[in-house]
Amino acid sequence: MSSNATIIRSNLSLLPAFGLGLGVAVSVGLARFAYALLLPAMRESLNWNYVAAGSLNTANALGYIVGAVSAYFLLQKIRPSQLFITGLLLTIVAVLATGLRSDLLWLTATRLLAGIGAAWVFACGGALVAARYHAHQTLRRVATGLFFAGAGIGIAASGLVVNPIIAMLGNPAWPTAWLALGVVAAIASVWPILEASRIAGEANAVSSGALNLRGLMPSMLAYFLFACGYIVYMTFIFAWIQAQGLSWKFGTAAWFVLGSGVAVSPFIWRRALDMWNPAVILAASCFVTLLGALLPAFFASAPSIILSTALFGSGMFIAPSSVAVLVHRALESNQWAKGITLFTVVFSFGQAIGPIGAGWIADSAGLTRSLYFGAALLAVASGLALIGLRRVSERMQD
């Protein structure tokens, strides 16, 4: 059978992974990253500075911490599929509620709840994909990448929903945009909820036993720094595009390219996901996002911004995919959900730190300097992942 026929057959059998990936589209693409599109309108309408704007993303990231930490313990009592579905429902409610009031306390609370729901979806979904493809190991890695790449669908969809509303109705229409996102989130959640309810197997069982993290700490630290760095770009890139005087239509196009890059990334990285050491995949994904983050800072032109979003999108969700592959290879199947959740805890702390630091830099030295800050963190993350390569290799050989 030709390689093309094999890919076609594989893609058809990847539909369950795609369905579960719509959970990431909702919890990450719509609930988290859509805020970058709404940030300029909310900042203008509510008279915020960049620190205040960044603090809402930090509230979301703190919710992600609460969700990740709580998931680590909840998975000792309930199945990943149950927590996944609960997280999706919580995210839908939080997104809808964000459009109901404009006071900072309310918005902080809704962003916090959205973060909790997203963490439950993100942490449990990787284990559910592994359970679904437990008997198809040749597909499991690309299925894992496809699950996380579901965020790209949400990113692209958020641009198509939010930007026309703000363009037609003005900055004060940001609550309408959040309500529209909530409706889209509710519709998109039907398939992943049905898919999660069908999954059985050991990887969907209650987690048990202590995790053995020997050899995994460098990768964990690299993942932390990746979270600190990538979230800077995702929080402020749309505001940076607007600061260059480019139109909302161009901003929508750039955002759509970014989401499309995420969506196709598991196929671009298919051979790497199949054959490379997970530490090398993590380092490479950090480096690709680093290139994407630096391009607009050095070359403030429309073509460089499009190339930047394409590069950044193609590498961004390969990092969590590499971590999921690492956990699958290093831990027993009944600990996959717990292991991915622990990495998600580390990731969530990084996401909480990044926007505040970048917001302070943006207020004092401009948005371009904040992009430099995020890129520097991604560079260090890539180096650390390579430093930990030998330890990861030894661990997987045991």
Automatic annotation (TrEMBL):
Database matches in PROSITE patterns: MFS (PS50850)
Keyword check for Transmembrane: yes
Keywords recorded for this protein, A-Z: Membrane, Transmembrane, Transmembrane helix
Record-level Gene Ontology MF annotations: transmembrane transporter activity
InterPro entries in the record: MFS_4, MFS_dom, MFS_trans_sf
All copies of domain Major facilitator superfamily (MFS) profile, residue ranges: 13-393
Membrane-crossing residue ranges in chain numbering: 12-38, 50-75, 82-100, 112-133, 145-167, 173-194, 221-241, 247-268, 280-299, 305-327, 339-358, 370-389
GO cellular component, one term: plasma membrane
Keyword Transmembrane part of the UniProt annotation: yes
Name recorded for this polypeptide: MFS transporter
Organism for this UniProt entry: Acidithiobacillus ferrooxidans (Thiobacillus ferrooxidans)
